[in-house]
Design a protein that fits this description.
Blueprint lengths: L8 E4 L2 E5 L6 H11 L5 H13 L1 H11 L8 H13 L6 H6 L4 H13 L7 H4 L8 H12 L3 H17 L3 H10 L2
Antiparallel strand pairs: 1-2
């Protein structure tokens, strides 16, 4: 589903980002949902944005798929956001859409906005998974967000931070994680 060779993509002024929603099949939606169930990657963010744009066309499949996710899986909130988004013209909160944008700059900026706002803690469950974002700047923004939170938030994030510390290849980010887990 994702890629320049897909027959659903329409070339308009050499813009391969355009797709005819009427041509999207159940199989295409299932493929997007399957991608959304995988680890964070660039394709994950593209699938998120695609499902968000498809709205009601993807709603039933999202609702049936949410039942298959394990209780406590952070992606349940993502699926609920997409289902809720399909019922209204605007997103529940534009920040959620920005947190999962295909553009890493937009994702990092959204995390920074959440860390600067009094209501930013409301998005903790959406931000924490971004510790596994493929982009360093997003992970760095998440660590700065966490460093501004109280100890209750840090306790919740502790195990995830420990796991991320083992995986992290960026030495500066690894050092920041070490500081947060002391």
């Amino acid at each position: 589903m994702i890629g320049k060779k897909n027959s659903l993509l329409v070339e308009e002024n050499n813009n391969w980002n355009t797709i005819r929603v009427s041509d999207v099949t159940v199989e295409n939606i299932v493929a997007l949902i399957k991608t959304l169930k995988q680890d964070l990657s660039e394709n994950f963010f593209i699938a998120f944005k695609s499902l968000e744009k498809l709205g009601k066309k993807a709603q039933k499949l999202l609702q049936s798929e949410i039942k298959r996710l394990e209780k406590g899986d952070w992606k349940i909130k993502i699926f609920k956001h997409l289902i809720f988004h399909s019922n209204i013209s605007d997103s529940f909160h534009p920040l959620i859409s920005q947190l999962y944008s295909p553009d890493f700059i937009q994702r990092a900026r959204a995390v920074m906005i959440a860390s600067e706002c009094s209501w930013g803690s409301d998005f903790f469950d959406y931000i924490l998974p971004l510790l596994d974002d493929p982009d360093d700047s997003v992970r760095w923004a998440v660590l700065n967000y966490l460093s501004q939170k109280n100890n209750n938030f840090k306790k919740i994030a502790f195990e995830i931070l420990k796991r991320r510390y083992k995986l992290e290849k960026n030495k500066i980010i690894k050092k920041k994680i070490g500081e947060l887990t002391k």
